[in-house]
Amino acid sequence: MPPTEITCPSLTPTLTPALLVHPHGRVKAEGVATYSCVEGRRLVGQAVRNCSGVGTWQASPPRCEWVSCQMPEEVENGRTIRLNETLNYHTIIEVHCLPSHRLLGHFRRVCQENASWSGEKPRCLGSREEEEGRWREEEEEEEEEEEEKRDPPYPPLIRHL
């Protein structure tokens, strides 16, 4: 009679919709199983578990938690509004300026998988900034970028005779 192969039990029953494991099914003694999480979640605990020589798993299984962003700093002369109750992955925040101020940048930002907010922090500019020329300079830069998108620079035409 051939010796019985020692394996660890399948980890599939311990999984959640967010927690993934490879390989599926039984793992031979001295083998390993590797865990990961679905997009928008982060792994808490050890990503690798070893199957011992006697067929038991070492270490506890990890778990997956939502990726969460910190509430960003308030925008001067503006207000940041959460559109969800949490600050988890894919949560959207909006920045709105006080009356008589103009938003420079995007008013919506999204919590990304790396726990940071998309885009750059917007600003709310008022008449004082406009008088100092900052508003006008930034508008000119935006206009130049838009113009380059419409009319990309081309090399001069060379005519051959």
TrEMBL record:
<dbReference type="InterPro" id="IPR000436">
    <property type="entry name" value="Sushi_SCR_CCP_dom"/>
</dbReference>
<protein>
    <submittedName>
        <fullName>CUB and sushi domain-containing protein 3</fullName>
    </submittedName>
</protein>
<keyword id="KW-0732">Signal</keyword>
<keyword id="KW-1015">Disulfide bond</keyword>
<dbReference type="InterPro" id="IPR035976">
    <property type="entry name" value="Sushi/SCR/CCP_sf"/>
</dbReference>
<keyword id="KW-0325">Glycoprotein</keyword>
<feature type="compositionally biased region" description="Acidic residues">
    <location>
        <begin position="138"/>
        <end position="148"/>
    </location>
</feature>
<feature type="disulfide bond">
    <location>
        <begin position="97"/>
        <end position="124"/>
    </location>
</feature>
<keyword id="KW-0768">Sushi</keyword>
<feature type="domain" description="Sushi">
    <location>
        <begin position="67"/>
        <end position="126"/>
    </location>
</feature>
<keyword id="KW-0677">Repeat</keyword>
<dbReference type="Pfam" id="PF00084">
    <property type="entry name" value="Sushi"/>
</dbReference>
<feature type="disulfide bond">
    <location>
        <begin position="37"/>
        <end position="64"/>
    </location>
</feature>
<feature type="region of interest" description="Disordered">
    <location>
        <begin position="118"/>
        <end position="161"/>
    </location>
</feature>
<feature type="compositionally biased region" description="Basic and acidic residues">
    <location>
        <begin position="120"/>
        <end position="137"/>
    </location>
</feature>
<feature type="disulfide bond">
    <location>
        <begin position="8"/>
        <end position="51"/>
    </location>
</feature>
<feature type="domain" description="Sushi">
    <location>
        <begin position="6"/>
        <end position="66"/>
    </location>
</feature>
